[in-house]
Structures are given as structure tokens and as C-alpha cells.
């Protein structure tokens, strides 16, 4: 079953552009949870040279509740990827392909809402990093996690 990347209220178009490119290159769906800090109209996309945008399976959700309702309707598994977890993401098993898997990432400046993440602490995963930075770049984080899931699944339909 497909893998999905979800971005909670992304603010920086270059990050979403990088992640969209990773999605187009890996058959991963992209979910954007509003409000967005930028426009995704045709003019913006053309100006940014995002010519792969047509290959991105993109979905918009009005807010976090609408996104969670969507995942529940699919009986999907949602993992929260956040700095304040202490469970290393790569210790998790993403190889089960019978269920859709969503990786939910937080906003560039403030991450995921803390209360929301605390209520789902058992599904919250961290990418190990040093103490010299507060966090990794959002688009790098998404690439790291999706490629670990793809590695565990044997890179389905990728050459
Ligand atoms: C630039 S970070 C900012 C959020 C962070 N909590 C903060 O306020 O310092 C944006 C998003 O990238 C992801 N991220 C960055 N570094 C991460 C890490 N080491 N482990 C897990 N997720 C990370 C998370 O999804 C996070 O919400």
C-alpha cells in the first residue's frame, strides 16, 4: 500500500517544493494541511520551475482534524515525526505494505502542536541528531524518513 508524507501548515515554499520532488520521485503521496504559508497556484509553480508538480499526487486538508479523519477513513497508520520524541525512527518496522502509512511532519518554525503530539506519543518518532542544532531541515527530514521506509519495503517500483 502507498506511503504518504503529510506537512502540517508548511511555511517555506522551497521546503514543500523539495518534498514534492521527493514524492514525485518515489510514488509517495503528498498531503498539505492548511493554512499554508504560500500559494500553490500555477503562476507560483511555473516561476519556481516545479515542472515535476504534475506528477505529484497531492491532497489538501483544511486542518489537522480533517487530515486525521481522512487517515481514519482509510484505516491508515500515522507516524508523527518530531524532535521531542526519543524513539529513533529507523527502529520502527515500516515494511508492512497491507496498510497505508502516513508520516506527519511539523511546521518549520514551531513543529507539530505539542498537545496533539503528546496524545499520540506512542507513534511519535525522532531522527537522531547532535545537540548542536535544534532540528534538521524539514525537507531533509522527510527524505531521510521516506527513504528508510522505502528501503524496508525493497524500493517498490523504483529503479
Ligand atoms: C525545522 S523543524 C522545527 C520543529 C522543532 N520542534 C522546533 O521547534 O525546533 C520542522 C519539522 O522537521 C521535522 N524534524 C526536524 N528535525 C527532526 C528530528 N531530529 N527528528 C524528527 N523530526 C525532525 C519535524 O517534523 C519538525 O516538526
TrEMBL record:
This is tRNA (cytidine(34)-2'-O)-methyltransferase. Homodimer. The keyword Methyltransferase applies. InterPro entries: Alpha/beta_knot_MTases, SpoU_MeTrfase, TrmL, tRNA_m1G_MTases_N. NCBIfam families: tRNA_yibK_trmL. It comes from Vitreoscilla stercoraria. It is found in: Cytoplasm. Methylates the ribose at the nucleotide 34 wobble position in the two leucyl isoacceptors tRNA(Leu)(CmAA) and tRNA(Leu)(cmnm5UmAA). Catalyzes the methyl transfer from S-adenosyl-L-methionine to the 2'-OH of the wobble nucleotide. It holds the Pfam family SpoU_methylase. Keywords: Cytoplasm, Methyltransferase, S-adenosyl-L-methionine, Transferase, tRNA processing. Coiled coil: none annotated. One of its GO terms (biological process) is methylation. HAMAP family: tRNA_methyltr_TrmL. Residues 3-147 form the tRNA/rRNA methyltransferase SpoU type domain. One of its GO terms (molecular function) is methyltransferase activity. S-adenosyl-L-methionine binds at residues 81, 106, 127, 135. It catalyses: 5-carboxymethylaminomethyluridine(34) in tRNA(Leu) + S-adenosyl-L-methionine = 5-carboxymethylaminomethyl-2'-O-methyluridine(34) in tRNA(Leu) + S-adenosyl-L-homocysteine + H(+); cytidine(34) in tRNA + S-adenosyl-L-methionine = 2'-O-methylcytidine(34) in tRNA + S-adenosyl-L-homocysteine + H(+). Belongs to the class IV-like SAM-binding methyltransferase superfamily. RNA methyltransferase TrmH family. TrmL subfamily. Its EC number is 2.1.1.207.
Amino acid at each position: 500500500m502507498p506511503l504518504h508524507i503529510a506537512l502540517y501548515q508548511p511555511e517555506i515554499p522551497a521546503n514543500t517544493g523539495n518534498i514534492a520532488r521527493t514524492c514525485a520521485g518515489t510514488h509517495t503521496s503528498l498531503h498539505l494541511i492548511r493554512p499554508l504559508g504560500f500559494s500553490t497556484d500555477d503562476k507560483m509553480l511555473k516561476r519556481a520551475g516545479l515542472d515535476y508538480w504534475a506528477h505529484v499526487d497531492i491532497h489538501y486538508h483544511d486542518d489537522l482534524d480533517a487530515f486525521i479523519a481522512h487517515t481514519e477513513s482509510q484505516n491508515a497508520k500515522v507516524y508523527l515525526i518530531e524532535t521531542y520524541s526519543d524513539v529513533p525512527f529507523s527502529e520502527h518496522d515500516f515494511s508492512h505494505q497491507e496498510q497505508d502509512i502516513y508520516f506527519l511532519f511539523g511546521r518549520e518554525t514551531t513543529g507539530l502542536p505539542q498537545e496533539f503530539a503528546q496524545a499520540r506519543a506512542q507513534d511519535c518518532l525522532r531522527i537522531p541528531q547532535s545537540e548542536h542544532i535544534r532540528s534538521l531541515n524539514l525537507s531533509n527530514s522527510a527524505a531521510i524518513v521516506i527513504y528508510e521506509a522505502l528501503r524496508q519495503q525493497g524500493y517498490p517500483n523504483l529503479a
